[in-house]
Amino acid sequence: MLTKEECLKVRSTVHELKEFWIPRHHTLPFYTLGLASPYDVPKDKQSYYKQAKHYNSILREHLGWLYERLTDTLKKFLQAPTSYPDNLALPGFHIFLADKAFEQPMGTVHCDKSYMFHWDSSEKVDFNNPISFTQTVSLPKYGAGIYMWDLQYDEVKGLEHQEIEQLASRRKKSFHPYKRGGLILHSGHIVHQIAPIKNLQPEDERITLQGHGVFYQNAWQLHW
Fold first, then answer.
1. Of 2.60.40, 1.20.1250, 1.10.3210, 2.60.120, which CATH number belongs to 4-223?
2. pTM to 2 decimals?
3. Which one of 60, 80, 109, 123 is most buried, by most CB atoms within 10 A?
């Protein structure tokens, strides 16, 4: 989706906006630029909606062209209209700076269910076929990627994280490497996990644009 030069442009902008990075770990250098439903809605849903407008205005001002590129790309691939709901956070950035701790598994083994925070089951929303995507911007020297298991949300619904991990350990696991500038698109209902970074170097960083989508009102509603 992005050329090498465009990736460098996005990376530079993300670093210029460092004052708006949100720390997501109490000791490790893991941040987001933008709000994310799984992190922010459980804390205070009304605050999420209020702050989403603030962060969205910053992201649109500095990276409006990127969000247009994303909707155009997904529209062509999905063969359907795409939209950003006014009240939800735009897709935002995961930012991991160099720390040897990231050579260990990062994040939980999980499915993406951000739509549950914002749409009621009574609405005509397709909860059965959500999408999740990762647009790579900056990758560590020895690469990065995502683990996926031969395991679907219907099989882990209602289970605790530890139970999901135990079930996943008995299923086939595959590694999907990222390519700088590439867009990874998958069903959020596939059990997955951020893959550890191998042989992390002091100057390494991992910056990706993250988002989700559900089909509602004849369009894919893209958000984070």
1. 2.60.120
2. 0.95
3. 109
